[in-house]
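Hi L., both proteins are below.
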Amino acid sequence: MDYIIDILIQWGPWGMFIAAFLAGSFFPFPSEVVIGGVYSLEKQQGVADGSLMWTLLWTATLGNVLGGVFNYGVGMLCSEEYIIRKFKIKPKKWEKSKRWTQQYGFWGGFLAWVPFLGSAITIAQGFMRVNFWLSTLTSTIGKALRYILILMALGAAF
C-alpha cells in the first residue's frame, strides 16, 4: 500500500484525484495521506502556492464525489444480499445506513465523507433511489468542506 501511495504522491494532483476516487468509493484508501504528501512534496520543490491549494481542493473533491457516484450506481444495480456479501458491509451497518437514508434522504450526503460509514450511506442512497442530483449536491458540499479543513490544517502545519 505504501508503494501505491508513494506513486500517487509523485503524480501530484492527478494522483490526488485517483486517491480521492478510491477513498470516496467502497475501497478503503487514505486520501488524507496522499493530499498531505502531495502538498509536502510540492512545498519542498518550491511550487506550493495558493493555486496548488485550489487545485488539490478541486481534484480531491471531484475524485471523492465521483467515488460516491460510483457507490450510488452500485446501490442502484445490486441486490441487498450482493451488497452485504461482496462489499463486506456488516448487516448491522447496512441496516443503520438504510434507516439513516430513510430518515434523512439526500441530506445524508453531507456525511458521505465519513470513513466507512460514508460508503454505506452512498450505496444505500442508490439502493433506495434517493434523488441522485440532490444526493450528489449534499455529498459534494460535505466532501469539499472536509478537504478545505484538511488543507487549512496542512497550510498551518507547514
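That was the first. Here is the second:
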Amino acid sequence: MTDKTLFITGASSGIGAETARMAVARGWNVGLFARSVDKLDALVGELGDRALALPGDATRLSEQQEAVEKLAAHFGDVTAAFANAGRGASAAGTLQGEPDDWQAMVNLNVMGVLWTAKAVAPYLQKNEGHLILTGSAAGRTHIKGSVYSATKWFVHGYAGNLAEEFREWGARVTVIAPGMVDTPFFDEAKPEKLKPEDIASSVLFALEAAPRASVREIFVMPAN
C-alpha cells in the first residue's frame, strides 16, 4: 500500500469529496471524516479500498484524534491532512446575526481547524508531512459585518503561523483561498462559478509539489 495517506475533514460532499476522488486517482489513501455516515459509506463504495470512512464531528478534538489514529492504524501513517470542514452564517451582519449561530460557526471554522492541526501535528512532525487548510477569498477582504469572513481571516493568519512552526520539522502548510464555488454551501446552484474539482486540483498541486517547494497560499477565483 502506498505511503501517501490524506485525512480530509468535511469529506462527504463538495470540495472534500472531490479532493478524495482526485487524491485516490493519484495514488493516495484517504480518510474521510464528516458527520454524514451514509454519504461517507457511499463515497467509500465508489473509491474502494484506498478510502476509509471516519464518521465524526469536526468540532470535537477527541473525535478528530480518534479518527486520525484509526486512519494511521489502517494505512500505516498519516502523511497529509486537509482541514476543509466549514460553514456559513444564517444571517449577515452584527444586528441581524444570531449569537448561537455565530458560536456554532466559530466552533467549526476556527476551533475545528485548530483541532485538525492538533490531531495531525504529531504525525506530520515525524514524517515531514503537509497540512492544507480551506481559507477563502472572503478571508482577504473586508465584507460589511461578515462574521464568516472574519473566521476565514483567522484561517489565513493561523496558516501562516503554522507554516513557520511546521517548517522547523520539514513539514509544509498551505492555505487554499477559493472565490465562489458551486457547492452545497449555497442554497442555490452557482453553475457559472468555480467547481469543487477546481479546488481539489489546487490541493493536489500543493501536496505534490517538489519537497523543496513550500506552496504557502493558492488563490482560485472564478474567471467571470
